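step 3/5: co-fold with HDD
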Amino acid sequence: MARKNDTPTVQVTASPGSGGETHQQADGRPHITTNHGVRISDNQNSLKAGDRGPTLLEDFVLREKIFHFDHERIPERIVHARGSGAHGFFECTVAIPELTKASLFQKKGERVPLFTRFSTVAGGAGSVDTPRDVRGFAVKFYTQEGNWDLVGNNIPVFFIQDAIKFPDLIHSVKMEADKGYPQAGSAHDTFWDFVSLMPESTHMVMWAMSDRAIPRSLRMMEGFGVHTFQMINAKGETTFVKFHWRPKLGMQSTCWDEAVKIAGADPDFHRRDLFESIESGDFPEWELGLQVFDEEFAAAQSYDVLDATKLIPEEVLPLRIVGRMVLDRNVDNFFAETEQVAFLPTNVVPGIDFSNDPLLQGRLFSYLDTQKSRLGTTNFHQIPINAPKCPFGNFQRDGMMQMMVPKGRANYEPNSLGANGEDGGPRESPKTGFATITTNDDRNDPTQKLRVRGALFADHYSQARLFFRSQAPIEQAHLASAIVFELSKVALEPVRLRMISNLRNVDEGLAKRVADGLAMDLPAASKPAKAPIDMEVSDALSIVKKGDPAMPGRKVAILFDEGSDKAEIDAVVKSVEAAGGSALLIAPKVGGISVKGGTLKADGQLAGSPSVLFDAVAIILTKAAAAKLSKEGAAVQFVMDAYGHVKTIGHNTGAQALIDKAGVEPDEGVVSLADFAKVAPKRHWDRESKVRTLA
Ligand code: HDD
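step 4/5: write tokens
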């Protein structure tokens, strides 16, 4: 359930036992073990049959080691594969409660931890750091209200206006599909072909061909949220906002010739620069600036603020600096942290919201999807670098690599398990939970984004009532009995009561029958959100009212034994088959049984072919066989069940003793062999009240 994500410590070589001396060598070093904790005595030699013999399959130490190695890599990011990250913090330098209720902006001096990853876009994970390319600038704030990911670039605009063009853009810029090159560069046919056909890319091309695309250091780049976002304050007032990161060191770029030479001299130039500066205590720092504006401002511009290929010049709308980001800790493990970090533009916190920018809207789909593909499980949020640092929990369960062990049975909501003294799990927070800003970005458009259902959806009972009232009496009895049975299995009395309260809105008679069946007092009716109405009864909703079933597709059993009349048996088989059913012969023994007129083999042995497997039964016996089978439990049960399950029973006069023994009373469903096929598929519901009590 809800848990706090403590800073993870990963012991690569230590036994994962209780710690302490027994898990350490004499010199204090931990034992090397298998993944399952077994100490390894020799990590240098595999197990062989003799000193020059083949390696043995038995060597689980070798196999586990190679197996794990074989699976070390995960799919690299489809874009931004090459990246470098670091831990740090965000500090609010100017509180802005008038703009947003987001907790990280409420108090000057307040800090939240964060993780930032910078990246190139086009190249693979092992490509060089200094191609001419856009740089990713992604920040994950671990706030007390959940993670906020600001997934931006070092350029304030983008190539395309609509996310539907993103796969085309990326296909065109990455290495060409047939050749597999160039790596990490846009200087090739397909990229320029694409942008030449996409006039909306022109602005971004200016930026991408500028010195911004060959930064001197990751520490010397600006960052941008690119899109227009929204903020909402505690009073519910909203505003548009664009986010900017400003490097304390100022901006600097390389010369192109320099960038090319650095690629050869030090392919890891930026990664090394970031790592070493943090290692030496020279912590990179950025200011967070906001461009804040309203609908009136937006409407007054010559471009659409929802268009990600446009920026708002600072001279028109100056930045308001509200905080700073300091990166002060390198990762302990590149893979566990930088590679596994999963940024999601959908990660917003109360106080921050999206706009209708169609590029942003598409991103809201894409990132969650890609993380499943990259990290292999919907539980990627449990990986320490991705997990919130505030308590979190819900009713999502299971999935690959589940690390949590939730207790109890509350894995759904609503539930009333808490009233029973159980842990009912977490609940919605209507006041403090994230609530989408309802107004449309175009405030003149009355359409609202709402989590609601239309007013008529509130009628929950009229059609339940229609269904119940449309059933034949026997069907109503079955339905009531079924609820009685199910609720009798419910140990939580308030649940039974609540259910009966609800049933009173369906049909008073039904509620009463259920209450009686459970020997409970009838509780007050629950108050429906909308009072039910009486709809015209519909016979089409009833099985019984649709008429008697026909023979095709039905199975009939013919019980016989030694001495039975083959002619009688053949006649029943023929009539059943003629009507479209299938007849199967059942006898105490399956091999050749001598009957009057020949020998017959049975399709099923009596003990293994109870009458529940058939739609109707015919019993064709001699008097002697009937007397014998009356002492045979399987035979008596066969008939008793057919009777109890209100099936048609056809029989000859010889079978009477068995019929009587099974307690069969004459009714329209107990017939002679001559009439059998006509009524065989039918259930004789009038009989049911004689064989069981229904609610
Ligand atoms: Fe994206 C990664 C930035 C548009 C789909 N994107 C990714 C990363 C950054 C950006 C910085 C790397 C995050 C990391 O370090 O792990 N992307 C942007 C910006 C965009 C943008 C600033 C436009 C303003 N992206 C964009 C669109 C789509 C994507 C329109 C798809 C419709 N982006 C992805 C992705 C990636 C990704 C495929 C690959 C790896 C990942 O998400 O985690 O889902």
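step 5/5: annotate
The first strand starts at residue 83 and ends at 92.
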